[in-house]
Amino acid sequence: MSIFETYSNKFAKSLEAYQRAIRAIPTGGHLSRDVKPFPVSVYKANGIIKTDLDGNELIDYMVGFGALILGNSHPEVTEQVAKQVASGTHMGTLNPLETEWAEMIKKLIPSAERVRFTGTGTESTLLAMRLARAYTEKNKIVKFREHFHGWHDYASPGAGITEQTGIPQDTLSSTLVIEPEINALKQTLETRNDIAAVILEPTGGHWAQYPLQNPYFLSNIRDLTKKHNVLMIMDEVICGFRISKGGAQSKFSIMPDLTTMAKIVSGGMPGGAVAGRADIMELLSFDLESDRVDHHGTYNANPVSAAAGTATLKIIDRDPINERADELAVRLKSGLNEQLTKYEVEGHVHGTSSIVHILLDVECSCDGNMCTLDHSEITRSAKKYGPSMKIAMLNEGVDMMGGIGFLLSAVHDENIIDSTTESFGRALKAIRDEGIIN
Ligand SMILES: Cc1ncc(COP(=O)(O)O)c(C=O)c1O
């Protein structure tokens, strides 16, 4: 039986659910992502086990697209959320939890002098860009190719294939997409005087799928932006509270002017935040009449997200959560490499902290920490093998990120990691037996 036939049999009820869903929702559902021939329908998730409609148990390496570093429904977080739901979900005025949440962010994120909450990571980058334009009185934002900052009109260019559809040309032209190379930035900043900010993913584009290739990239950006009076926005939506308690800026000792957050910051509930220098953040102040940066949002800092976020950040502050997830990632990387060797498949495993990527049918001589493969090689491999690896691993009961990688939590464990690497070996064999890879 082919991997796709095995999949259709194993997930028969998910297929029925998908056929019903696409009659009401384009793509069948927002979180389905692009899984062909159809995505799995999951109705329950606890810790790192998800249960689908057919009763299959899947090991979760999506962890809420990175939000759930404590796994699904962590008991302490769930308790706080349940308490808050019972005490009210919207106060329509200040709520003390919002301040506690902001104080936790200030404690963990070195550059956070002030914090403002948003509804999502997309809203966070939108607000940070607006603040940067208002502060510098300049209009253009520089972003790097393949760095992802959400789906709003100013973040979309340079982040995907159909990133320009539906966006006005004028809006597109206010975002300058450049190669993620320091010389490209140097040239841009030296030749233009209309740049408000540079925004970047500090571990490399698309949750480190396209790693930064220069160990001094972040410090070089910091130096250049300071020299040219341009703001540096560090997008810590993925790496904040993951690659260290204080995110990338703490791990690499770089102080951005503004930081954008979402995912872990709100503990598995919807929410995001922008933090940064007080003089920039104070542009949001109600005391400013004409020059104030306007920012609204019915559910920003809502008490339920505040309860989940505060509980999560307190656990991250208290326990070695990041260290544990990192340790498990090291074991996973070495297990995946062993399987590539065992099945004699050319491939490469790389990643930083608890983020792990695999690339098949490529050669890279790096040690797995700072992969030197060209952008186009990475894209080619991911597109060619990701879709079938996703299906082959689901057949094994493992839910990977897009068939190209894994996000770890602190509640995976050694046995789960070892069983995942065995599954990966069998999945490799399955796609090789089908002639998808040599
Ligand atoms: C680095 C980065 N920035 C921004 C976003 C957008 O966040 P959201 O999906 O919460 O809008 C994401 C989402 O994956 C992201 O990875």
List the main descriptive attributes of the protein structure presented here.
438 residues; alpha/beta; Aspartate Aminotransferase, domain 1; Aspartate Aminotransferase, domain 2; 2 domains; 7-stranded mixed β-sheet; 4-stranded mixed β-sheet; 14 strands; 40% helix; binds pyridoxal-5'-phosphate
Topology, element by element:
Blueprint: H1 3-10, H2 12-21, E1 42-46, E2 49-52, E3 57-60, H3 75-87, H4 96-108, E4 114-118, H5 121-136, E5 140-144, H6 169-172, E6 175-178, H7 182-191, E7 195-200, H8 205-208, H9 217-227, E8 231-235, H10 247-251, E9 258-262, E10 272-276, H11 278-281, H12 303-318, H13 321-342, E11 347-350, E12 355-360, H14 375-395, E13 398-399, E14 405-407, H15 414-433
Parallel strand pairs: 3-13, 5-6, 5-7, 7-8, 8-9
Antiparallel strand pairs: 1-2, 2-3, 4-10, 9-10, 11-12, 12-14
Helix pairs in contact: 1-14, 3-12, 4-12, 7-9, 13-15, 14-15
The structure holds pyridoxal-5'-phosphate.
Structure report:
- With 438 residues, this protein is an alpha/beta fold.
- The mean pLDDT is 95.
- The protein starts with a helix and ends in a 5-residue tail after the last helix.
- It has 15 helices and 14 strands.
- It is globular, with a radius of gyration of 22 Å.
- A hairpin with a 4-residue loop joins strand 2 and strand 3 (57-60).
- Bound molecules: pyridoxal-5'-phosphate.
- Pyridoxal-5'-phosphate is lined by residues 65, 120-122, 125, 148-150, 201, 207, 235, 237-238, 262, 272.
